Amino acid sequence: MEGKNEQRAGLLYGIGAYVMWGLVPLFWPLLKPSGAIEILAHRMVWSLGVVTIALLAVRRWAWIGELVRDRRKLALISVAAATITVNWGLYIWAVNNGQVVEASLGYFINPLVTIAMGVLLLGERLRPVQWVAVATGLAAVLVLAIGYGRPPWISLVLAFSFATYGLVKKKVNMGGLESLAAETAVLFVPALGFLLWLAATGKSTFTAGGTGHGFLLAATGIVTAIPLICFGAAAVRVPLSTLGLLQYLAPIFQFGLGVVYFKESMPPERWAGFALVWLALSLLTWDALRTARRNRALAVKLLATAAAAPATATPTPEGVATLPSDAAPPGGTTTPAPEAATTTGTEAPNPAQQKIT
Q1: Which of 349, 350, 344 is nearest to 128 (CA)?
Q2: Stretch 248-257: mean pLDDT, rounded?
Q3: What's this model's pTM, rounded to 2 decimal places?
Q4: Which residues have CB under 8 Å from 337's CB, separation 6+?
Q5: Is the dihedral of CA 280, 349, 88, 55 positive or negative?
Q6: How many CA atoms lie within 13 A of 234 on its CB side?
């Protein structure tokens, strides 16, 4: 019963995290007239403050010494910080410039881009269904390019920057809070310097917009940290396959807000492009679930075989010699062991291990 309660709580944490990420387009317009770069700088500065308080609460500091001594990990953290800066900044700009639908597309196609990067950069092999999904996603991008009259560059930059961020985070192998703290620490000095420059030149909106506006800018740290904390709580309670399905909640909410709330136009060719993307994601999800089910069945079969093997052995009287396990019995042959089933291709990278901003 306790395990079920934990899973139920994890599911609620996961839904909460992705719903908050899906509804965040409602927050960024509240920060106008601040520009995207100023909002981004405030997000970096205040996020570090929030995650520092969270780390104080859980008393997790040992990782700092290990990180400082590991130059390779420090370099990877710097790369992750740079890519998430591009992702955050462009996303804020897109939302505040009426491009919510195109921004949501970036997170829809992110799993496909992650798989493509795995093939190109890591030499991974794909299963046939994964190839079909990637090809369908490419066709969707071409259709959308025709519909927009240009490549959907916002979507592509968001998808590739987030996929790169996920790849680097996988190599860093740090917890969500620790990783965010390290990344925002790297970004803190340039972000704070930029905010001080804005204040010195009279271009800052932090105080000029009034007390309420200042509080909203400071709240960017909370908006960044709370979904991540919920995601971390979900990740240790529910299977990654469940989080992999929940991840689509965020772009679904973003897309719905773009069409219904912000009333962005959706001509037929744009619907066609999104339909192809959703078809590709359906194929990808079906293949991942089928492969996970097959691997679980194989694992159960192998465990059952291993558990049954000792039971078939007969006790040997003391002093009687026994044959080696790989030797044939006198006048006969050994019984062949059951062949292990094999699968081709690689598992699709699970985007549930990333966070959506």
Answers
A1: 344
A2: 92
A3: 0.78
A4: none
A5: positive
A6: 26
